Amino acid sequence: MSSGEKRFPLSLSSVVDKKTARPERRFTDGSSQTAMQNSQSARLGRVAAPVAVSSVTERPAVSDGVRRAMVQRVAEQGVRDELVLAAMQAIPRHLFLESGMVGQAYVDASLPIGYQQTISQPYIVARMIEILRNGVMMDRVLEIGTGCGYQAAVLSLLAKDVYSIERIKALHELAKNNLRPMRIANIRLQYGDGMLGLPQVAPFDGIILAAAGLEIPSGLLEQLRIGGRLVAPVGGKKQELHLIERLNQKEWRKTVIESCHFVPLQPGMV
Ligand code: SAH
C-alpha cells in the first residue's frame, strides 16, 4: 500500500483519494438524505473532503492533542492501517456527543447517545474498518446503525460513497444534525430497517454492522458484491466479530476475529 510511506498523522486532503472522486449519486426513491444537501460543493456536483472539520472544531488545538492520544491508544491495541488511524485523527469525535459527555469524547469507551444506544468505542470502530477495507480504497459501503453518525464520518474518508441506515428516527435526525456542519459530501443517511439493507443501491464493496444480531441477515449477504467484505458483531450476551467474504454467487467465507460487545440489532423502525 502506497500509504506506507506517508507520515502519520495525515492531513485530511491526503486521506481522501481525489483521483477517484466522482459526482455524487443519490437514491432513486427520493427518500434519502445527504449530510450536506445544502453545501456548495454538492450543488456543484463535486465530492469534497470535509474541509470544514477543523473550522467546526471550537478549539481545534486542544481536541487535536487529545484525539492524537486516542489514536495512539488505538494503534497500540493493534490497529495498523495508517489511513484508518488518520481518519480517526481527522474526525472530531467530541462533536458527535451531547455537551455533558464531551469531556469523555476521547476515552477509549463506548458512550451513551440516548435511546439506549451508544457511540462505539474508538478501538472497535478502527478495527472493524481496518478489516472491512483490507488496505483498499472502497467504492460503495453500507453501514447498519448510524447512531450519532461518527463511524459514518470516519468511513467517508475511506470510501467513495457511504450509505448508512438507522432505525430510530430521532437518532437519524441527530446524525443529520451532527454531520451537516462537517459538509461531508459522500454520506447518504437513510431512516429504515437496516436488516433489509438497501437493495436499490447494492451491491456494496463493504457492509459494516454497528449492532449485533444472532445471525447476519441474509439480505445483507446477498447485497455484498462478489469479492466484497462484511464485518459484523454476532451473538447475544456473548458476541464475536465476524468477517464475511463473498467468494462467488453462492459462497461466503466466515472468519471469527475477536470477541466484542455491541447493542442489539433490532427489526423494524421506531
Ligand atoms: N455507528 C454508531 C454506533 C451506533 S450504535 C457510531 O458511530 O458510534 C448502533 C445503532 O444501531 C443504534 O443507533 C441502533 O438504533 C441501530 N440499529 C439497531 N438495529 C438496527 C436496524 N435493524 N437497522 C438500523 N439501525 C439499527
From TrEMBL:
Start-end of Basic and acidic residues biased regions: 16-28
Gene of this entry: pcm
Protein name according to UniProt: Protein-L-isoaspartate O-methyltransferase
Top-rank EC class of the record's enzyme: transferase
Reaction(s) this enzyme catalyzes, per UniProt: [protein]-L-isoaspartate + S-adenosyl-L-methionine = [protein]-L-isoaspartate alpha-methyl ester + S-adenosyl-L-homocysteine
Highest taxon of the lineage: Bacteria
Organism: Undibacterium rugosum
Region (Disordered): 1-43
BP GO annotations: methylation; protein repair
Coiled-coil portions: none
EC number: 2.1.1.77
